[in-house]
Design a protein that fits this description.
- By secondary structure, the protein is α+β, with helices and mostly antiparallel strands.
- Helix content is about 20%, strand content about 15%.
- The protein contains 3 helices and 8 strands, in the order ααβαβββββββ.
- It has helices at about 25-45, 85-100, 135-140; strands spanning about 125, 145-150, 170-175, 180-185, 195-200, 210-215, 215-220, 225-230.
- The strands form 2 sheets. A 6-stranded antiparallel sheet has the order 1-2-3-8-5-6, covered by helices on one side. Strands 4-7 form a two-stranded antiparallel sheet.
- α1 runs parallel beside α2 (about 85-100).
- The radius of gyration is 20 Å and the shape is globular.
- It starts with about 25 loop residues before the first helix and ends in a 6-residue tail after the last strand.
């Protein structure tokens, strides 16, 4: 109704190998995995997450980037979900619960990335080999893989009663590359052992079903995120 003048042509989009609807199971699986990737990076980021209604169950505008004048299926929210939409909704609820339970994902102070003395930093970015990111690493044009340590013991915050807040620590392994990547976990000073929390490549992966020692290797599937939680003393 606007002669295609109502939306920008500068779209940051990728069809994952096919334009529009497809029956290709590999493309469909990749699209669903990418949806989970976007949800994870949103809900595990600092700040207030802003989720567009319908994204929690994979709502689509069928490629239309501005549906304000479309009073039809393009703009409506459908409540009869297919199985994959129900699964995505459950995964979103799992992420919301994880964020609510762990203040390390919703700090009230900016991350510093550095600390004085022997204490660990509040955040620490590392390469697939488990070593700290360098300035050269940050400037690489082909940098699609990165790890993040979030320190739950260095929140430097207090609850309403004035008591210090202490949380679990986490490792987030991001692989935006088109091939699987093997990560080496950081040294034992960051944590002697880690257990699985969630994976966008395995949305049904249960918590604490896999455990990894410091400096052990973990294969992260192409275009996926793997989240680990540091094992508590005596939990093994």
């Amino acid at each position: 109704l606007e002669d295609n003048r109502d939306g920008t042509d500068d779209n940051r989009s990728w069809n994952c190998g096919a334009e529009g609807p497809t029956d290709d199971p590999e493309i469909l699986e990749l699209r669903e995995r990418q949806e989970r990737n976007f949800l994870v990076t949103l809900f595990l980021s600092q700040g207030v997450p802003m989720l567009l209604g319908g994204d929690e169950f994979g709502r689509t505008h069928e490629g239309n980037n501005n549906t304000w004048c479309q009073d039809n299926e393009l703009s409506w929210l459908g409540w009869r979900h297919e199985p994959w939409q129900t699964a995505l909704h459950l995964f979103t609820r799992r992420l919301i619960s994880l964020r609510r339970r762990h203040p390390v994902f919703r700090r009230v102070r900016f991350l510093q990335g550095a600390t004085e003395g022997p204490a660990l930093p509040d955040a620490w970015w590392f390469r697939p080999d488990g070593r700290k990111m360098t300035q050269r690493d940050w400037k690489r044009d082909d940098g699609h893989v990165i790890g993040l340590f979030l320190n739950g013991e260095e929140l430097q915050e207090a609850d309403p009663q004035g008591d210090p807040v202490v949380d679990d620590s986490f490792l987030l392994l991001f692989n935006a590359h088109h091939e699987d990547v093997t990560f080496t976990l950081p040294a034992a000073s960051f944590g002697s052992s880690w257990e699985s929390e969630l994976s966008t490549a395995e949305p049904l992966l249960e918590v604490a079903t896999r455990e990894y020692a410091a400096r052990s290797k973990l294969e992260v599937r192409s275009r996926s995120v793997y989240v680990l939680r540091r094992c508590r003393p005596g939990s093994a």
